[in-house]
Amino acid sequence: MDKEVFEVILNKSSKESKIKRIIEMKSESALPKGENYTSTILKITLKVVLGKGRVATKSFIAKKENTGEAAEQLGNDLALFCAEASVYTNVLREMGYLMEEFGDTEGPLWCEFIHYNRANSIIILEDLKASGFNTVKRTEPQDLDHARLTLRSLGRYHAMAKVLEERGLISKDGYKPHPFLGDGIYIRNFLYGSLQTLFKGMRKSWGEEWAEYADKLSQMSCEELSKRITESGNFDDNTFKCLNHGDCWSNNMMFKHNWEGKPIEMRFVDFQIPHYNSPCVDVTSYIYSSVKASVRHQNLKSLIELYHESLTSSLDRFGYKGSKPSLEDINNAMERLLFFGTCFFTACVPCALTERTDALDLDKIFKTNGEEGYNLSVYCEDGVVETIGEDLKALVKLFEKR
């Protein structure tokens, strides 16, 4: 078959699947209340006429910036929507080209980007649910199968980002530090603020045996916490660094499962906080925010080994010419970030695991510098002690090492 004939076939196929007009359009909330604090997520469903007159249903996701004082400050400080649109139109597009260049058939790690309206801060994306992907339940931490797939996927993502950097397609200077690791205001409002509410909950309902731990940790000033957190994420120039996803937790990933319920594919979503640092920032954020604590305690060593193997083998696959991190390098970076991970898990994760939809009030958190806005009831719920108790004891030991 010659080239001209094939062009005719492809053009015909494209016309038949192309949308000619929209008959009907409806929108509805894609997420229940309490699942996203910075964006309103809508599902747009269209009844359309295709090229040959066939009627079909198409669906898309629309992300719109929330309103309110906190949303405005987040927008001003982090430029969330501009950052995400830039990742989709620049970074992820180039990653797609890289996969084509090297014949990577594992599939993308993101959804298709459709459109960005800067004036109205609206991003239109592929509806992954239409392709069989679903989120995991936020209130149920991930099991070992999900953790292994996610960390393998993170290794691929970080490797592609590093290759793009090596080719001059990503500039390490174009990204701010992660706000939880480099911005005193965000450390105060979120980490220190949630810790103070945790201590109140411990004294109120955890029992006398926990009062000593609350007393020890409450001696840590906001300045000291900020200093230790910032230092943990301040890696020197010899450290392997790359573009990080930036907000790597359960709500920002979707999975496709087989008939037995095992995850077989995944996609990252919500690229609003990209930052340049050790890839172990993403790894730490994910493992401590989203993986079941018992799974983390029992499998941390093997999970880090799996991530390292995925990262280095992917660097090789995509033709990276620079120096690759050793397993010891990755373990050392994880150890350095241990205080941040443990602090984040004990202070913030209870707000993610609760069934309550009023765990956080972002406007109040920003207005009071973190002194208010956290629902005390979250830290007094049944099961909280069992979930974070062992890590809280570890946090005390880390704090006493200062």
Automatic annotation (TrEMBL):
Superkingdom in the source lineage: Eukaryota
InterPro entries: CHK_kinase-like, EcKL, Kinase-like_dom_sf
Residues covered by the CHK kinase-like domain: 123-317
PANTHER family: CHK KINASE-LIKE DOMAIN-CONTAINING PROTEIN-RELATED, PROTEIN KINASE-LIKE DOMAIN-CONTAINING
Annotated protein name in UniProt: CHK kinase-like domain-containing protein
Species for this entry: Nezara viridula (Southern green stink bug)
